[in-house]
Amino acid sequence: MSMEFLQELGLGEEAAGQIMAEFEKALQAVRQELEERLAAREREMEELRTDFAVEKELTGLGAKNLKAVKALLDMDALRASEDSQAELTRQLEEIRRENGYLFKDGRLPVAAGPTSARTGKGFGFKFTGVR
Asked: Does pLDDT of 26 surpass 60?
């Protein structure tokens, strides 16, 4: 839309100017809304890329349960880091060191509590049966 078009329709210069001013306001509002939507989509895409990279790394490391390992990650630190790959590697090394049982080639959890009665160890008494 242009001033010339509005004037050709028979509108005066002042009326055409007011219409153009309103049109520009509406156009600016639409432009701003589209930019906000685009920024939101870009943030969503970046989150998806980050999640995909994390899951790919966890799969490569042989994580038994992606959800459990991801829960131990500090995702905010990953997103804030300038070198997110190095930060991910650092965090995963720490998780693997502390929770190796979450990975296929890691150590198994050690059962706590008394040892088996069959080995002669345990609470220090012998069970002879019920009387």
From this structure: yes
